[in-house]
Amino acid sequence: MSSPRGSKSAAGAATLALMAVVAVVALMVGAAVANRKADHDVPQVQLGRGPAPLDPAVAATQRSLVDFWAGEFPAVYGKGFEQLRGGFQPKSPQSPPFTCAGKRQTYEDLKGNAFYCGGPGDDYIAYDSAQLFPQLNNEFGGIAPAVVLAHEMGHAIQRRAGVDAPSVVTELQADCFSGSWLRYTEKTADDPVGLTDGALDTSISTILVLRDQPGTPATNPQAHGLGFDRVNAFQTGYEGGARGCAAFPEGRAVTTELPFRTVAEARTGGNLPFSEAIRVLSGSLDDYWTAAMPQVVPGKSFNRPARRQVDRPPEANCVVEMGSGYCSDGNAVVLVTPELLQAHQRIGDLATGAALSEAWGLAVQFQAGLPSSGRASGLQRDCFTGAWLSALAGDGLDGTSLSPGDVDEVLATIVADSTSPTGSRLDRGGAFERTAAMRRGLFQGLGACR
Description:
Blueprint: H1 8-39, E1 45-47, H2 54-77, E2 88-91, E3 98-100, E4 103-105, H3 107-110, E5 114-117, E6 124-128, H4 132-140, H5 143-161, H6 167-187, E7 193-195, H7 199-209, H8 227-240, H9 242-245, H10 263-268, H11 274-296, E8 306-310, E9 318-321, E10 324-327, E11 332-336, H12 337-346, H13 349-368, H14 375-395, H15 406-419, H16 425-428, H17 431-444
Parallel strand pairs: 1-7, 2-6, 8-11
Antiparallel strand pairs: 3-4, 5-6, 9-10, 10-11
């Protein structure tokens, strides 16, 4: 979803000039506010995990984005906001040909996509209203097309701000801007867009679908970012606002995109066979928690659990989450093989790693005398997973090291568990909250998981 780019008297005079500027600005702000009020004839539309009436939802999103940037752009960049000269342009098979940067475009060129055109003389956002937006609306809910439009609006903001950065940085910054807009809609009562339950979680799912494939180097001119990079940027904008996003070109953007190191790694996607992944990652978690347990409880040693593979979850004295669990009687980790194998084959070896980390996290909580049930405890285990991943990336515990896309696999596993009908959204938090917990551990370490 990227742009196809293109003395006393002197002091007195200065004071008078400044007063004149202030007066003009005041008039402009007053006019802008008046225009916003008039434009708020657009009825508020509630967007979330369920499908929305698409045309009203898109209209409300467009109005909300203009309202947001009319106030935020001057605050962040110190100059006035100019609306899109060419506006928002829905495209369908019936749409006539159009141009971008002097190049003829048809619906077939745009099909399944959306982009900001900032070529010479161009300034508009085009989107596939016939297939892409209905599909996103039906599969991910009404918030999904809104997130796409917010991302493309981010590219329009970059042109107005004069941002010059590599593709992956501009894409992540646009995700960050999108997150800052979503936070604005959430806290603005009279905004044309209202958020319902699940809107934040669905935003995460939408972004994951639009990620780069593992093995794409960050230097690729078309790179948008891996799923984790894009979700991290989106949540950074949500948490810190557009001002923080403005710093991305100066080095704040986080990228984990790396090329595959060998032909064999590319062939396997960097994934270990299931049985080897169980052995290697279990050893890594044993080593990590043996070293890290004193950070959780000073002076406390970690008692490495036994490991048992079972065909179905045990019923007594065991807590099972995400296909794995911990049995306090006997200090044993149990792995539900069919469930883990399915996730391993569908997502990758760090889906297995995420489930194993969940089980070891339960072991740590039991041994440390910490609560092991409820929302806060579950989020703490997600944070533990992030901290373990950070150590895994840093020193290759037990001979392991992260492959391209491994962090995405952990993220995808958490999101899948959070959003599935049998997942744990209600009792331990949704995808947005759980992802934020994992990020906290990854970036800040185990000390952030208390």
